[in-house]
Amino acid sequence: MSYVEYEKAQKLGLKAFRNAVSKGENEYLPVLDEILEDVDIVGEMPLGIVQIPLDRIVGTSNVGRTYAFANNFMPLLDYKTEFGAKWSALCDSQIEEGIRDPIKVYEYMNKFYVVEGNKRVSVMKYFDAVTIPAQVTRKIPKKTDDLQVKIYYEFMDFYKLTEINYIWFSQEGCFRRLLELTSPDPDAEWTDEQKMDFGSANHRFCVSFKALGGDKLPLTTSDTLLIFIDIYGYEAVKKMTEAEMKEKIKLLWDEFLIESKGREVELHMEPTKLGRKKLMDYFRSSTPKKVMVAFVFNKDPQESEWLYGHELGRLYLDEHYPDTIKTLKVHNIESEEEAISAMEDLITMGVSIIFTTTPQLISASVKVAVNHPEVTIMNCSLNTSHKVISTYYARLYEVKFLAGMIAGALSKNGKIGYVADYPIVGMTANINAFALGARMVNPYAKVYLEWTTVKGNTRENVLREFEENGIEYISDQVMIKPNSHNRRYGLYHIEGDETINLAFPLYQWGEFYAKLIESVVNGAIKQDDAVKTKAINYWWGLSAEVVDIICSNKVPEGTKQLVGIIGKLIRENSFHPFYGVLRAQDHTIKNEDEEIMTPEEIMLMNWLVDNVEGEIPDVEDMKDEAKSIVEQKGVKDEAKADAEQKEVKDED
Fold it and tell me: Of the spans 136-140, 389-393, 483-487, 618-622, which averages the highest pLDDT?
């Protein structure tokens, strides 16, 4: 009997050996001594006798027995050797009574390398065992900025609380996130009951995920489990059967695909055109029933400049499409649970399109969308990688460039102020475009950047500082709150106590929403969604008529004419604000001569052009009320995550 089993195992080893040779990979077991030759190990920690997952035993401690095994731990030597006889004896022992003697291993970076017991591991892997008892000693590398090392240090903190060694993530922050999702106190040690509950749920998920082909994705199973728990909730996941998990995994498959592709986002810069019918034509030619559209606000639009703009967009729909669109709104949503409940209620009322208007509502949007594929849910954010929802945003940088031209043309001393709020994705493009527009008409123009959401800053303090530095032309907030007497918005000029409004870069949210609804009704959104491995972000600008700039009569006619000409060229895609040689503040070249920056490069800008005075603040510098949105969509974090994901992808 043992001869037959050995022969089967040897065939598996020879097959793995040949495959490795054909791919130019190491055909034998990795050797820890060789791996650690250039690694600074700062300590060892005995962990005692531990059940370790066999799939994380990847190699041997030293070169002694390496060549007896293929890289999958299956034997290569002939059956008639002493090695073959011992392997076969262990095989008989496993069949008759099971192998119980602990092996001895080193753990490094949550992978295990055998010191004693290579043949026992080989036999147990052959029989598809899940775990094996082992005497474990951990080798701890020096803490560095290497992504894998940082993840490993997070794992060690996680292990201290849970003693779980079968979880591994490919990104930073996931171990902590898992603790937050699964434990009422993320800093407390787990009880035996918690370990058993999680182990059982993890096992069912792994079996279900693998049965659907999940092991072929370039993700760890833990990566996908975290997404699964985040969306469905840990309490619900603990109660799910394997069959229920399979069905829900299928619903999330596109989410996993996007994650496996490095969270790739496909930017749609123009509305997808299907035929020549307009929104009203589609309504006339189909059912007369009104389309029910809902808007979800996390605050009261009357108290937020940003949300008030979206509320005006909703009112635009009510005014222009009273017979075909019915809009609803909910506001003052204070938690994710409230957002989910509100959207579920809206769907029950017959709403078929939901717009969530801030990045803080992304998670709730995804969780509702997974359970309601018949409803279109869209979130107003940029560089958001989810398949079950689409996102939308406006390319305001195009009209900010035009506003910069006006400021540069009118400023006598070349000093121009720029008041910004959140350093999130898209904001840097607005600032840089404004500065480039100013410099195009005034080579000496300098833009002085200040952030109102930085600790210690207020709009009043910023404006006072501008005044003290002789800055009279200022780009400020795009929208103001209703009933506000503040005239300091858009681009304005300060003369003593008088504020002279010059130009107003603005979002045309009404037009944007009308075009989005048209895209849903005419099937364009569904056609776009056929791109299965990328998230869709709609990033429309002047050409889609969803942004604009209004000049007051205080702007000279010649300047207006120049702005009109350049705006027309941008609209026709004949001129681009980010064209030619562009240098950052540290003088590094970010764009070459006669080249146009790609939309992705513009979206992920985490640098400022060299005629900007100021900096992009870190999240630690932000006021408490601003931290959540900056942590979620901060331009520094987004660019860093994008670079690290690319690094991991390149290594794979």
Answer: 136-140
**Alpha carbon distance, N-terminus to C-terminus of the chain:** 40
- What three-state secondary structure class fits 609? strand
Q: What is the mean pLDDT of residues 540-548?
A: 97
**What tokens were used for 102?**
């602990």
Query: Pairing relation of β-strands 446-451 and 612-613?
Result: parallel
Q: ∠ at Cα 360 (320, 262), nearest 5°?
A: 105
d(C-alpha 315, C-alpha 129), whole Å: 63
Q: Where are the alpha helices (DSSP H) in 103-220?
A: 118-126, 147-162, 174-182, 192-211
Kindly report the number of other CB atoms within 10 A of residue 97's CB atom: 8
Measured N-to-C along each axis, helices 242-251 and 221-232 cross at an angle, to the nearest 10 degrees, of 90
Nearest-5° Cα angle at 77, 72 to 82: 120
The amino acid that residue 526 corresponds to is: K
Q: Give the separation between CA 569 and CA 541, rounded to whole angstroms.
A: 13
Can you tell me the distance from the alpha carbon of 531 to that of 236, in angstroms, rounded to the nearest whole number?
A: 31
pLDDT on residue 643: 44
209-263 pLDDT per residue, tens: 999 998 888 888 999 999 999 999 999 999 999 999 999 999 898 888 887 766 6
d(CA 124, CA 114): 13
Q: Which of 547, 541, 569, 553 is nearest to 440 (CA)?
A: 569
> Of 363, 353, 318, 311, whose CA–CA distance to 332 is shortest?
311
Q: Which residue has the tokens 């010649």?
A: 558
Please count the CA atoms within 13 angstroms of the CA of 127 that sit on its side-chain side.
Answer: 21
* CA–centroid distance for 281 within its chain: 37
Kind and range of the H or E run holding 431:
helix 427-441
Which stretch of DSSP H or E encloses residue 613? Answer: strand 612-613
Listed residue (556, 612, 618, 547) closest to 582, CA to CA: 612
Q: What is the DSSP letter of 359?
A: G
Q: Is the pTM of this model over 0.85?
A: no
Would you say the C-alpha torsion 179, 180, 183, 187 has a positive or negative sign?
positive
| Token pair for 367 | 């969780």
CA distance 26 to 335: 51
The one-letter amino acid code at 104 reads K
Q: Which of 187, 180, 169 is nearest to 336 (CA)?
A: 180
